[in-house]
Design a protein that fits this description.
five-stranded antiparallel beta sheet; 3 domains; alpha+beta; four-stranded mixed beta sheet; globular; binds flavin-adenine dinucleotide; Uridine Diphospho-n-acetylenolpyruvylglucosamine Reductase, domain 2; Uridine Diphospho-n-acetylenolpyruvylglucosamine Reductase, domain 1; 26% helix; single chain
Amino acid sequence: MDMSELKHFANSTLRGTLSQNVPMSKHTSWRAGGMAERIYQPADLEDLLEFLRGVAVDEPLYALGLGSNLLVRDGGLRGTVLLLHAALSALHLTEDGSVYCEAGVPGAKLARYAALHHLHGAEFFAGIPGTLGGMLAMNAGCYGSETWEKVLRVQTVDRHGEVHIRTAADYEIGYRHVAKLASRNVQEEFFLAAWLQFPRGDEEAARQGIKALLSKRIATQPLNLPNAGSVFRNPPGDHAARLIEQCRLKGRQIGGAQVSEKHANFIVNTGAATATDIENLINEIQATVQQQTGVRLQCEVRIVGKARN
Ligand SMILES: Cc1cc2nc3c(=O)[nH]c(=O)nc-3n(C[C@H](O)[C@H](O)[C@H](O)COP(=O)(O)OP(=O)(O)OC[C@H]3O[C@@H](n4cnc5c(N)ncnc54)[C@H](O)[C@@H]3O)c2cc1C
């Protein structure tokens, strides 16, 4: 966007907030990373659609939930980051018994809502500190459950502000993997909401399930330091953490980035990690594990933006 388009923004009826040169360390759970050229925080769904209808066709756009699976390189991100978690917050039961959940709703809220309405099987969302949008993009999951197993259909928007209804058949969906199917003509789209289906269950049992899951996380994950959850996908039939530990990489540190002593598939920011420190450590882990075990670990965390010159 050039200045004339920013003027266009000022003259529009948009109700959201546009900020420039925003450190992405403020918006990512690693608390590290470069600047976003612009961040647009829409007021609500309608406002997001209006923004998209007016934005320049060549403006790079990135959807952002809670930034719990994202590393923005220190050279920053050109274009506009769409900050969705506050804007897309609707959550309600529909007449057919499914849960309509907008993309900005955090996993913990969704899990509690489903439990309150006597639904079973949403408990696992409580342990994932991201939004439904991020969980749909990643097919996030844990303890044997995955986001897309619960999806009846999703509502998406393309970069021109046109809304679409899609189903799982429009995507290639796998373990921590969701890709558009070219044959279904899905263009660059962002998730707005999903209709999720859960069987009837018992409220107290679901609450207990959530409690047990959170205690397990506190016991096994380094939640006292900024991190982005598991950095690598588990290779088929194995665990990335086991391989990293076997290579004696626990505690290995580059700058402020350290392989957690508590969970080897977590990289923690010990205070002043840069995105470069984190990415260098990721690369070192990949190279060491490959050299010593022959397994090439695949990154689960999304890495975007330019390296610092
Ligand atoms: C302590 C901790 C524990 C974790 N445990 C788990 C776990 O058990 N299982 C698991 O799967 N993950 C886990 N994660 C990782 C992370 O929480 C999930 O990947 C989550 O789904 C990311 O959601 P988010 O809103 O933070 O996404 P972001 O980090 O904001 O974005 C992640 C990606 O999704 C895209 N995206 C976000 N919103 C949208 C949208 N509306 N439309 C299209 N694309 C979008 C972004 O562009 C980006 O590419 C953990 C992270 C932490 C910090």
